[in-house]
Automatic annotation (TrEMBL):
Transmembrane segments: none annotated. PROSITE patterns: CYS_SYNTHASE (PS00901). Pyridoxal 5'-phosphate binds at N72, G175, T176, T177, G178, T179, S256. InterPro entries: Cys_synth, Cys_Synth/Cystath_Beta-Synth, CysM, P-phosphate_BS, TrpB-like_PALP, TrpB-like_PALP_sf. This is Cysteine synthase. Pathway: Amino-acid biosynthesis; L-cysteine biosynthesis; L-cysteine from L-serine: step 2/2. It is an enzyme of class 2 (transferase). Belongs to the cysteine synthase/cystathionine beta-synthase family. Keywords: Amino-acid biosynthesis, Cysteine biosynthesis, Pyridoxal phosphate, Transferase.
Length: 294
């Protein structure tokens, strides 16, 4: 029995891939972050950013929050802000799926949609301009150390313990980079030989949740020294693997998870041996209005 829904953030399942890996000497496990109460890995960061800001006195119950998001962080922030009785405005591109917008509003958030052509960068500019007025507090997931520390405190230890300290490679899509930064920091402290693999889209691909940032928008929390290797995946690869995850492994997820899985399977097929863990960021029901599963 739990006192609050916040008590079930984290401790998500780790499940072994049964059909995707052909290499008999490598095991691939998926960490199912869609099992978080808000439906994604971003519950961890959102909870830690809001709770830490409250504990430090940076914000209080009269503070108005604002944040730019491509979707999952916004949903997580909307849920957790509501639990703490905080007002929040979430800013996202107008081409975001309707499921994401409606979910944020269901949790009580105000949602502002910016021009699709401006992408998430335009949403970040809008939120930063409003924060400069002094009427809002911007959590700034792209530059907030409480983002990556959430994964240092939870995701990394969970993976280490659930693999019985045997993990050899960690694979994660890179968006805000909070997941890969925090998990890398923890795992490298335990065993510096563990390889950290970041996943980015190819130059001509659009994969929601994975970015290759322009220099001006590169997340301030990102430290390239914490990533041993970067693999690029195409939009087609990500889409096809997302569908394969559902059809062959029973894992219903979004395209960023498919991108990470595509990179992880590619990695598994080139290794002599190993235990690989790949992050499944969210659930696929957030993408049913898109053509991902058409």
């Amino acid at each position: 029995m739990n006192d609050s829904i916040l008590d079930i953030v984290g401790n998500t399942p780790l499940v072994k891939a049964k059909r995707l890996v052909e290499n008999p000497n490598v095991e691939l496990y998926f960490k199912l972050e869609g099992q978080n109460p808000g439906g994604s890995v971003k519950d961890r960061a959102a909870f830690n950013m809001i709770k830490s800001a409250l504990d430090r006195g940076d914000i209080n119950n009269k503070t108005r929050l604002i944040e730019a998001t491509s979707g999952n962080t916004g949903i997580a922030l909307a849920m957790i802000a509501g639990i703490f009785g905080l007002e929040i405005e979430l800013v996202m591109p107008e081409n975001s799926t309707i499921e994401r917008v409606q979910t944020m509003r269901a949790y009580g958030a105000k949602v502002t949609l910016t021009d699709a052509d401006g992408g998430i960068e335009g949403s970040r500019d809008y939120a930063e301009d409003k924060a400069k007025t002094g009427d809002y507090f911007m959590l700034n997931q792209f530059g907030n150390n409480d983002n990556w520390k959430a994964h240092y405190k939870t995701t990394g230890p969970e993976i280490w313990n659930d693999t019985n300290n045997n993990i050899t490679h960690f694979v994660s899509s890179m968006g805000t980079t909070g997941t890969i930064m925090g998990t890398s920091t923890f795992l490298k402290e335990k065993n510096n030989e563990i390889q950290i693999i970041g996943v980015q889209p190819t130059d001509d691909s659009r994969i929601p949740g994975i970015r290759k940032w322009p220099e001006a928008y590169l997340p301030k929390i990102f430290n390239p020294k914490k990533v041993d290797r970067v693999l690029e995946v195409s939009q087609k690869e990500a889409e096809e693997m997302t569908r394969r995850l559902a059809e062959e492994e029973g894992i219903f997820a979004g395209m960023s998870s498919g991108g990470a899985a595509a990179a992880a399977v590619r990695l598994c097929n080139e290794l002599e041996s190993g235990l690989v863990v790949s992050i499944v960021c969210d659930r696929g029901d957030r993408y049913l209005s898109s053509d991902l599963f058409a």
